[in-house]
Structure formats: structure tokens, C-alpha cells
Amino acid sequence: MKDLILAILNIFKYVGRFFTIVRNILFNVLLLAILVCFLFLIIPKEVSHIPSQSILRLDLFGDIVEEKKLLGSIEKLFGDSVDPEAPEPETALQDILDIIDNAATDDRIVALLLNLKHMENAGLNQLQSIGQALVNFKKSGKTLIAAEDYYSQSQYYLASYADKIFLNPMGGVDLHGFGVFRLYFREAMEKLAINYNIFKVGTYKSALEPFTRDNMSPEDRKQNDIWLSALWKVYKDDVLQQRKISKETIDNYTTNISLALQSTEGDTAELALKTGLVDQLSNRSDITAYLIALTKTTEAKPSIIGSATYYDSILPSYDHVDWQGDKIGLIIAEGTILPGKQPIGLIGGDSLAALIKKAREDKQIKALVVRINSGGGSAFASEIIRQELLLLQKKGKPLVVSMGAVAASGGYWIAADADEIWASETTITGSIGIFGAIPTFEKTLSSLGIYSDGTGTTPLAAGLDLTQPLPEPLKSAIQQSIAHSYDQFLQIVATGRELEKSRVRELAEGKVYDGKSALAFGLVDKLGSFADAIDAAANLASVTDYSAEYIRPTATLKEQMLQFFSAHTEPLAAILNTNEHPLVKKVKKVLASKLEALTTLDDPRGIYAHCPIRLTL
User: Fold this and answer.
1) What's the pLDDT tens digit per position in 567-614?
2) Among the residues of 395-521, which ranges form H helices?
3) Residue 198 CA to its chain's centroid (Å)
4) Among 382, 402, 409, 431, which one carries the catalytic annotation?
5) Which of 267, 332, 502, 508 is least surrounded, with the fewest CB atoms within 10 Å of its CB?
6) Spatial CA neighbour of 553 closest among 377, 347, 369
7) pTM score above 0.85
8) Strands 607-610 and 434-440, sheet pairing
């Protein structure tokens, strides 16, 4: 018996030693990883050699954004990417512009090859900015090439700027026009017995229509038709100018595609060639031969440099942190506006206010440019940001707003007081309106035989108890609060834009405008780019010798480690990710974007200035 007990104790002893060894190994590996991370952070990266007669491949991956989100290694491993060449699911607009501008004057680069196959969503004004950079690149005398198996509508817009557009003989060009399409849940709400309490001001404030209707309202349809038509005209005009084809040709292609395909017996690639959308149908080996000839090399393949490699060899715009003179501060405000501190990709009331405060207190910063790409969100968070912007102006520092693809509702709330507002002709703005939404589930629960009951000292004692119907006094209070916030929004716009409040009321009601219309109505001051807005800020501040620099939150050690490990997990991510069909991935992404609004309704008062428009490009 004693021997048995000793044997059992020995087993536990050796098991304990085993786990101690494993624990020590894991701890040492983690410590080593941290040390390696620190080394990579402090040791300068070696710049890759770029040979002469090189072709720069402009890699546009994922969505085109104003500022890239920070992705962790785990997200990389279990994300959607299956291409080891795809470093990020997003590409920053300014990075693209920097790469093109530098390549135009780089003697080592003889041509630019557009790599569009991984490009997804982009605002039309972002595409126009890239298009203008491509025009400037061609002025250098260098060749711009587009060569893809297939072109989506947004991809083709950029391809249209190329000197030569190649298309695979089995491919095609998808041009179908612009649209806004949303999911509507009224019948689903009824079936689920959810009582959605709606509070809003503004005939055209359509953010809550998905919960109250089964289709688009006539008012929303009318306003959407106006700005969609304006943007589609810009798209067509730009393509027609680059490709030198007639308006009738592209109209026939987009409205009578079935009839047009009869002339080529259903061959989409041949139709694209016949209509002048592309220059040549070529397979991949033919394109490689063309690129070899372009670089005048005797090698079996041309020297092609990827965007990431080339970007490491240039100095990015607006990152001159060692400048000791006057500065123009730049802040990116992109995403839904939410209370508190939020990560990149969302606008936090507190986190953005902290950056504005940093600009206000920095003596070197003489003016601030805020680049807004947002459909709004929390009215409370929007006001927190606006109040901080007013303090900056009170300090004597000019404020200029540069609008991106969308700067509407809450996005316009924080822009209204700017000394100057700059937009593009294709910016979506306005949507001056307020709403509130509170679902209650008393009917849902009762259908399951569950009931809520109780007593309190006042009719409002239950507060926002979602298991009970909203008391009528509370409904009245919320609607009055909504009306007050709407009146506050009107006054903010009237004061900031120097318009009569009655005129603002006419322009409000939740109406959405394209940038060109907003300029005519006085909602924006000028049409121009981000760079134009920076020049305007410098002019307002009366500075000539200055550096424009981004103001960003200080990266924590955790964030720096995430950045490091993210950059080294792509090959493993490609191995571990399942190879989903592209259509399945597209459906998942569309559903996620359409349901996004349901997860961002967290204003502390339940009051929102939000315009959920997503243009289908």
C-alpha cells in the first residue's frame, strides 16, 4: 500500500515538473517575442533596392479609407484574406496619392501598373483624387497600364485613366449605375412582436424607415434619385473624358446590356472591346510580354515593385515630426460617431475631442484641418466634439473642414462652425435631422408566456425597462427632447453658416445633398481636395513656411506590438483561412454593412444625428 501511494505521488511530482517546464518555456517564448518586437521597433528598416527600368505595381487592397484600422494578428489569422500578398483589408487614400506622386518623378520607375483585383469599396471623391494623381503621373511621360481579368464599376473608373487597358478574353466590365438599397424590417418586427418606439424630426430623415416600412418612402426615393443622378453623371463624364467615347455608347452599355450582348453572341469581353471600354483582349502571358518590352529588359520577366516595398522607400506626406516651425494640424475623423473613446475606424466623442485639445494646446499648430468621412451617429458625442472645436477657434486658431465621401448628419454637426468647409462635388452631406429609437419587448415576451409587472413611486419609476411598454409621459418627454435637439442643430447650422434659421429649416428636414448642390445652398464654402483645405487653413492663419502634420493618439505598447505582429502573419493567415467563394464573402460583407446601424445606437439620451447612406458603386 505504501509503495502504491509513493508511486502515485511520484506520478503527480513528474506531472507537476512537466507543467512547470511547459510554463517556463511559454513564458520565455513570450519574453523573447516582446524583446524581438522592441528590436524591430527601434531598428530602422532597411530600404529595399529598386532597380532602374522598374514597373511600379499600385496595389489597392480592400476598401479605400482615410485612415487604416489597427488589425491584430488574431484578426488577420481568422479574417477573410486568402492572399499572402494582401497586407491589409484597407488602403489609405493618402498613401496611394504619395506613391503615385513620388513615382512620377522617380527615374527608376518607367511605368505604373494598376493592381485592382483586390480593390473593394471607395467613395467617388476618393476615386477622383486618385484619378487626378494618375493624370499628373501621365504628364511625366511614363506609361500607365491596367490589366485585369475583370473590372468592377469602381475598379473600371481608375482603369479608365490608363494609357492602355487590357482585359482577359474570358472577362468583362461591369457598369450598372449607382444605387442605394437597404434592408427593411417592419414585417419582421411584427412577427417578432417587437414594439419599436420611433421619435424623429424631418420629413426626409429616413434612417429609421427600415424599422417602420417594407420599402423606401416616396420622399426618400425622390431625394436619393437627385443626388444619385448627380454622382452618376460625374462618373460617366469622367470615364467619357478619359476613354474618348460617346455618352450614347456608355448609356447603351448600362441600360441595354442584354441587347448589346446579342451583337457579340454573349461575349462580354468582346463587347467591352467593341464599345471602346478596353483597348486589347490579352491573356496573362501576353501582358507579361508587353511589360518586358516596356522595360526594355533582356530578362525573362520584368522588374515589378509592389506598393508596400516602394512606400518604404519614400517619405510619407504630413508625417514630418521633426519640424520646429509653424504647423497646420491634421485630424482624420472617419466612421460612425459614438460616445467615449473609440479605436481608429470609429469616431469617439472623447477620443476625437482629446486630439482637438492637443491641437489647441500645441503652440506650433497655427490652424487645424479636420478631414470628415462620416454619416454621423450620436448627437451627444457630436456636440462634445463641436464644443472642443469651438474652444480651438476661441484660442485664435482657424478651423477648416475637408469633407470626404460622406459628411452628413452628425458629420455635418461637427463641421458647421468651421471657418471654411471644403467638399468635393461628389461628397454626400446635409441630412440635418434628429431621431430616436427605443425597442421594447413586452409583446415578444408575452407571446412566450412571460410578463413584467411591478409598482413604483411615479409613472416613470420603471425608467427604460425594455420588458414594458414606454409610459406615455416618457414618450412625450423623448419627443420633446428630440424636437429641442433638432432646433439646436438648426441653430448651430444657422450660426456657423451665417444663414437665417428659417432658411436652414428649409434645407434641413433630413435632406441629403451632393457637394455641388451643398455649395449652391451655402452649406459648404468651396469645392476642392484635402490639399486645397490645408492651403486654405495656412492662408487663414497667415503662415507661409509651415509643415502640415497628422495629429494622432500616442500608440500604446500593446498597439505597437499589434502592428508588429500584424505585419508578420500574412502567410500564416493565408494558410489558415478557408477559401470561401467570392460571392459568399461579398454577401457576408453586404449583410454586415447593412446591419451595422443596429450595433451603433448607444447615445446616452437615445438621440441620433445619423445618415446611414452607403452608395453602391
Assistant:
1) 444 333 433 344 444 444 555 555 555 455 545 556 666 666 777 666
2) 410-413, 442-447, 472-497, 501-507, 515-521
3) 28
4) 409
5) 502
6) 347
7) no
8) antiparallel
